[in-house]
Amino acid sequence: MKQFRRITIDPGKMGGVPCIRGFRIPVATIVGMVATGMTVQEIIQEFPDLEPDDVKEALTFAAKTLKERTIPVAL
After folding, report:
1. What is the 8-class DSSP label of residue 37?
2. Cα 56 to chain centroid, rounded
3. How do residues 37-55 score in pLDDT, each as one tens digit?
4. Rounded CA separation 64/39 (Å)
5. Which of 11, 15, 31, 42 could be joined to 38 by an S-S link, Cβ 3.0–4.6 Å?
6. Are 50 and 22 in contact (CB under 8 A)?
7. How far, CA to CA in Å, does 30 sit from each of 12, 17, 33, 42, 54?
8. Can you tell me the distance from the alpha carbon of 2 to that of 38, in angstroms, rounded to the nearest whole number?
């Protein structure tokens, strides 16, 4: 798996969920914001500590993670 420099996982923060650069901003939050149609600039306005590359890496991390897992599908 590609090394993600901007994604941190710390069991002592946010229950160990993947976050952006040690901030308490989960990758899932960023992905959800993109999914609702927010632009990178709007996300950065909401979280001024973020950089455009943080958003890009969050999306890349989410995509890579989903490729490597089996997702149960309800029939």
Report:
1. T
2. 9
3. 999 999 999 999 999 999 9
4. 21
5. 42
6. no
7. 20, 13, 5, 11, 9
8. 26
Q: For residue 67, give both structure tokens.
A: 């490729």
Residue 34's contacts (CB-CB under 8 Å, 6 or more residues apart) are: 43, 55, 59
Mean pLDDT, to the nearest integer, of 10-36? 96
Q: In the beta sheet, which residues pair with residue 7?
A: 20
Quote the CA–CA distance of 75 and 73 in Å, as a whole number. Answer: 6
**Count of beta carbons in the 10 Å neighbourhood of residue 55:** 24
- Cβ-contact 7, 61 below 8 angstroms: yes
Distance between the two ends of the chain, CA-based, in angstroms?
30
In sequence order, which ranges of 1-75 are alpha helices (DSSP H)?
Answer: 27-35, 40-46, 52-67
The encoded tokens of residue 62 equal 């989410």
